[in-house]
Amino acid sequence: MEKYIVNVHETDERMYYLTRMLRGRKIERPTHVFAPNIVVDARTLNEVEDGAYVFLGRTNEEAELLANSRNITLDAYSKNEKFQSVNSRLTAEGTLKIILEKTTKGLFDLSVLVIGFGRTGAAVARLLCDVGAKLTVASNSSVRQAYALAERVIAPKNFDFAPYDVIVNTVPNPIITDKDTMTIQDGTLYIDLASSPAINLEYARYLGADASIYPALPAKTAPYSAGKAIFDYIQEVLNGK
């Protein structure tokens, strides 16, 4: 029976490490691996063999229909709790690294607002709590769990950013109005970890904030470990077949 080398589509440094980890591995079915932040669309799937197995982060309805018609299996990392947990921890570590590099205060002197308390928001809040930052969480859900880490828990609306040295957003929706943004102070560090920013970044920068979006942060700050997280998931899936 013919065997195939796993085809890793390298788009960042973590995928380079993943390629090295999978070197020499051959399996019975054509297999393609895409980075978690890449949207695999129908045009991309047109280049994939019929009956292939595809590991990916995101796709769209058109691609799913095409995959069904050609017996292509789409396997999303988001289905795996272990992978998501590791990726969230790496994102939190990357966030801490940015804060350490870009602020002039010690962690114990920083007042930090984390917006959102999903998997990533909780991981960021937990790490910042552990290192002694003064933490506020903005969330409507898991309030009791948020209070276990934060000094304050507020609703994610009508923001007053004046008290905060650092703002970390994890909500992928434009929930911060320009009126809210006007309260941001000159020199505030705004870190957006969502797939699309919650704030008008250009306006925040005009007001003097150091504001940026940081997509696929683990690939930038811990590429080996980010690649290994994908490798471990692929191994788990392939060994189960």
Condensed summary:
With 241 residues, the chain is an alpha/beta fold. It contains ten helices and 14 strands. It has helices at 13-22, 42-45, 61-69, 81-102, 119-130, 143-147, 178-181, 201-206, 217-221, 223-239, and strands at 4-5, 7-8, 26-27, 31-33, 39-40, 53-56, 58-59, 73-76, 111-115, 134-138, 152-154, 166-169, 189-192, 210-213.
What would you note in describing this structure?
This protein has 241 residues and is an alpha/beta fold. Helix content is 39%, strand content 19%. Strands 11-10-9-12-13-14 form a 6-stranded parallel sheet. Strand 12, helix 7 and strand 13 form a beta-alpha-beta unit. Helix 4 packs across helix 5. The protein is elongated and about 65 Å long. The mean pLDDT is 95.
List keywords for this structure.
alpha/beta; 2 domains; 19% strand; 241 residues; 14 strands; Rossmann fold; elongated; 6-stranded parallel sheet
Topology at a glance:
Elements: E1 4-5, E2 7-8, H1 13-22, E3 26-27, E4 31-33, E5 39-40, H2 42-45, E6 53-56, E7 58-59, H3 61-69, E8 73-76, H4 81-102, E9 111-115, H5 119-130, E10 134-138, H6 143-147, E11 152-154, E12 166-169, H7 178-181, E13 189-192, H8 201-206, E14 210-213, H9 217-221, H10 223-239
Parallel strand pairs: 2-4, 4-6, 5-7, 6-8, 9-10, 9-12, 10-11, 12-13, 13-14
Antiparallel strand pairs: 1-3
